[in-house]
Amino acid sequence: MDDLILSSLFLGFLLGLSHALDADHVVAVGTLAAETESLKRSSLLGICWGIGHTLTLTVIGSLVLSLKWQIPEIVATSMEVLVAGMIVGLGALLLWRARRPLTLHAHTHSHDDSTHTHVHVHVQNQEVHSHHHVRNSLQKAFGVGLVHGIAGSAALTLTVMATMPSIVLGLMYIVVFGTGTILGMFVMSTFISMPFIFLAQRAIHWHMPIKVCAGVFAMGFGSVLAWSLLT
Fold first, then answer.
1. Mind giving me the DSSP string for 43-103?
2. Which of 50, 184, 194, 231 is the most buried if burial means most Cβ atoms within 10 Å?
3. What is the pLDDT of residues 59-80, one digit of tens each?
4. Which pTM was predicted?
């Protein structure tokens, strides 16, 4: 393997790292990280996103490289619009979950030879609620990565076809690029979650308002992105 190919693969890794910082990626992952309360879980979200993204790129890249197929511009644009709509949906979901979850609970106790039942409305046990949604959050991050991979496949595959002399090396480029993306998303997801975790632990009265702001921003960003693509 000559120096030019090694340089191209290294460049692919660096491009994967920078690819994680694309605005639509940051906003989408931000809506996911806003719902976590631990750095470990936030890091896993980034990794799952990156794996989904890389899987899609590998499948589509394999088809493009083996069939010498070029993705039509209208298809690439449609996928970008799909991503924009997904970001709007993620923002709306974050707003929905930003409501303080309440539960209706009955307490029964006895005294003075009589039994009393009192009904209370209180905040749900956040630890139980969080544990219940861990798997769903990771699956959602994986799915979001899959969709982003579809939208980002056109530019990547054209780059691969222009720089790599064979299908095997083209696939190696995609894997190296994806590895860089996974690492970049791991770091970015962890970093984005830090303010939310700090607020949840130290300034709980600001936690929900910040999550609402993040949801509104995501919806606005997705709407503007879709409008720019459709006009």
1. HHHHHHHHHHHHHHHHHHHHHHHHHT----HHHHHHHHHHHHHHHHHHHHHHHHHTS--EE
2. 50
3. 888 887 787 777 778 888 888 9
4. 0.78
Total structural domains within the chain: 1
At 115-147, the pLDDT tens digits run 655 544 444 444 444 455 567 888 889 999 999
To which residue do tokens 């609970």 refer?
105
The residue written with tokens 């921003």 in the block is 217
**Tokens encoding 230:** 């459709």
Domain interval for residue 158:
3-230
Q: How many CB atoms lie within 10 A of CB 206?
A: 14
Angle between helices 167-202 and 23-33 in degrees, nearest 10: 40
CA 211/CA 193 separation, integer angstroms: 11
CA distances to 46, 106, 117, 118, 159 from 113, rounded to whole Å, are 57, 19, 14, 16, 81
